[in-house]
Please model this.
Amino acid sequence: MKGFLKTLSPFAPDQSGAVGALYELGGVIVICDAGGCAGNICGFDEPRWRTKKSAVFSAGLRDMDAVFGRDDQLIEKLKKAVHGDAAFTSVIGTPVPAVIGTDLRALDRLSERATGLPGVNVDTDGTALYDEGQRKAYKRLFDVFAADKYPVEKGRVGLVGVTPLEVSRLDADQKAKAVYGEKAFCAGFGSGLEEVRRMSANEYNVAVGPSAVEACELLRARFGTPYQKEYPFLPDDFDVPGANRTLIVAGQYAAEAIRARCTGETRVASWFRMDRALTKPGDARLETEDDFIAFVRDFMPDVIVGDAYLKRAVPDFTGAWADLPQLAVSGRLID
Amino acid sequence: MSAYSIPAEALAALGKANVPDALRSDRHLIYSSPATLAFNSPGANGFGVKRAGLCVPGSVMLLVSPGCCGRNTTLESVRDGYRDRFYFLLQDSTDIVTGRHLKKITDAVCRIAETAKPSCVMVCITCVDALLGTDMQAVCDEASAKAGLPVVPCYMYALTREQKLPPMASVRRSVYSMLEKQPRKGNEMNILGHFAPLVDDCELYELLKGAGIRVIREISRCASFDEYKQMSRANFNLVLHPESVYAAEDMKKNLGIPYIQMTRVYRPEKIDTQYRLLAQALGIDFDTGEYRAACERAAGDFRKKRGSLRIAVGECLNADPFELSLFLIGQGHRVPVIFGTVGEANFPYINALAKVSPQTRVFSNLSPTMMTFDPAEYPVELALGDDAGYYYDDAPCVPFRDETQPFGFAGVRLLLERMDAALEVTR
Model:
């Protein structure tokens, strides 16, 4: 039955991905919910919440707000929360505005008028996965802020798509510099809005996951900045046991980085968005728990690389398991 | 922008009808700080609707929602006792508009019943179905008839949190709704209110047993569904949390079980008063002298050992922060700051605070201005509650949020022990 989970819990939703993309950029972010979604995002999907302050609020919607719309009251509350150095406002969609048909683009215009700040609303609805929220947020972010052309600086590399949900680690900015040089930075992760504004100065960009591709395409179309698809965030000591058949269950670009280290037949399966350009025969996008169970049954891998949380779905699997924590799946970070 | 606060004296002077907007959560955006995650999202820690629904022995839960609502259940699902008790029916973007997911619920329940053999299935629904106006009772009745076991709706409607029947009150009704009328026993009673038991050494147990009560039931101590069903034999219910009143009313109406309500307080004289009123209602006498004397002795010893402390009191703990502050001030300590939600129920405490500690500053955890709270402005030697501990990360903290519930004189003694231990570690 589609949507029925017997052993696994839901993965990180789109609204968490959208907040993750905007979290460090100095905006006032309003999760358009009654409180539970904000609790899930801040308390579970956004590990930076406990170490880096960010103006992320819940709209605190109540039933009458939903019944009557009351967008004006939301804008009024938003206006009160805007502080002196706020760079933008962003209303993040959840199931509540989706059900009542809130026009988030119209809210963008209303908030811009009320606060004088650019609006970066993201029309998530809580039913899609984090990568979809990231895709929408990055595209909107660069569309609004990466507008001016700067001279290209040699060695300046922008990594797009880096959030804790995508890379499952909190030292990604240091890792990026170690791999691409001191001028490399992760947009919105250890860097601020100024770096986003100056994306046109990048020598090239790196899309670290499929959710970053549209934003990188936008930058290429706007400034001619080339980009490559790479995932430089695997743990340094990550070892894949040799096997005849290896199944990698991870974000697709991470999985490709692992595939390069595998011997024998290797297949990639992902719960998240997949990039056709990198998809090989036998790879699959998983939609349901049953898809995963069937994939393992049919492919009969000797080794599975993926978050150990997934073991519970395939208790009969007797091969080796190489654990790769995935925050968006289990809520675990790489140590 | 500095964190908004108001002295207790000024707040009391304004009165409960004129609480400033900055202290009213319906007048501003909600700052879901690390201090208040559990407050703003009850499921984030402790007992939210999902875990609460599973306090019925042998039950499992089917959460029917978009994926986002079940996300933090990953934490629960790896916790002992919950691993195989959560199932999900995820709504997609079409479901949340058309409600077509409702047709799948019976099938999902039947699959769960076949494989897990639970005592009952709690069907948890969220804001989406609140807005769609779903009659989940009818859906559950149909599923129950097909699956051949009780199927009960649990309403995790965050949108209705400030209504008369908020989600945590509603789930308390749900968990007792499977009880069926049977002859009552004069020497049996239930304690309602929490999803975990009272501390084992709570004097309430001894007082009740001394008064001839032979069986005291709490849902969290019921080892089986059969034992849970025996709760309908009680002669009366003792309600220790206001959100259980609706469940108690249901049990009075449907099972003929009357109820008596008590409030958790920390001032010894108020605890004594409550026991006296309880005894009056039961037509008996309680001798609380020994318990009260031990409690007051412990408070006195603590004061003597630690001197007069400045203590920050938060609301993320097993107490009302305003009432707890009155206790601490009564013991000779000072409370410079309270992080709390001002409401009708606790305004009498604020009025009392205004008299004994007029300059105590009241902050709202939920105000966006709390992003800029500066602990240096109101130094303290001890923080009570997870939230106060978050703001005062350099001070020793007593979270005092155990699932096992403190109550009565035993609760006060436990708090004092914890405070002493926290100060000892720091020293």
Summary: Chain A touches chain B through 60 residues (CB under 8 Å). The domain at 157-229 of chain A is CATH 3.40.50.1980 (Rossmann fold). The mean pLDDT of chain A is 95. Chain A has 14 helices and 13 strands.
